[in-house]
Design brief:
four-stranded mixed β-sheet; 9 strands; 6 helices; five-stranded parallel β-sheet
């Protein structure tokens, strides 16, 4: 692989979602259009996060390279005419509201878009694992007529997932704000 030249390197090693994206947003604002930033991260979820964020904002995701435990993501800053205002999925629900729906016996489908290790150690009972990086190729496993609640660790990955599902024609999709970080209901883990 040829040497990849970046105008700036951003160290996000050891940080979990949403911090690599938060730091990338701030750092890319300091670059000129056409310049490239290399974001170094150890969070495996950062791959889907960076790709989704770039698509959502209009910046160009160039690719990622894995070197040992470090993922190096490369993003090219777009010109002002290419940059899109970052969108948020409008249909949201709090963790408390979702817990109330579950306690009342409402039939809901919970999609957990965190990485498999996050899901294995702490998840809402009955939640289905759909890591964000796999969602685009697996959305056909979901019924567009279902009420779908999407959760991640903090609400950022799930926001991107909700936007993707909406683009694919899903009408009843809600982002669970606060994510598992704000969940106080029952959890289970892989035995």
């Amino acid at each position: 692989m040829p040497d990849i030249k970046a105008n700036q390197t951003l160290d996000c090693k050891g940080l979990a979602c949403p911090m690599p994206i938060v730091k990338t947003k701030k750092a890319i604002d300091q670059l000129e259009a056409g310049q490239v930033i290399e974001v170094q991260a150890t969070d495996k979820g950062s791959l889907a996060d960076i790709q989704g964020w770039a698509k959502n904002t209009g910046h160009q995701y160039l690719g990622s390279v894995e070197e040992g435990a470090v993922l190096k993501h490369y993003i090219r800053k777009s010109s002002p005419g290419e940059v899109k205002e970052e969108k948020k999925h409008l249909q949201v629900v709090s963790t408390e509201d979702l817990q109330s729906k579950l306690l009342s016996g409402e039939k809901v489908k919970i999609i957990d878009v965190r990485e498999p290790a996050e899901y294995a150690f702490n998840r809402i009972p009955g939640a289905i694992s759909f890591p964000l990086g796999e969602l685009e190729r697996r959305f056909n496993e979901l019924n567009p007529a279902d009420d779908i609640y999407v959760i991640c660790r903090t609400g950022n990955r799930s926001d991107l997932a909700c936007q993707l599902l909406k683009e694919k024609g899903f009408k009843h999709v809600s982002n669970v704000e606060q994510g598992m970080a704000g969940w106080s209901g029952p959890t289970e883990q892989k035995q």
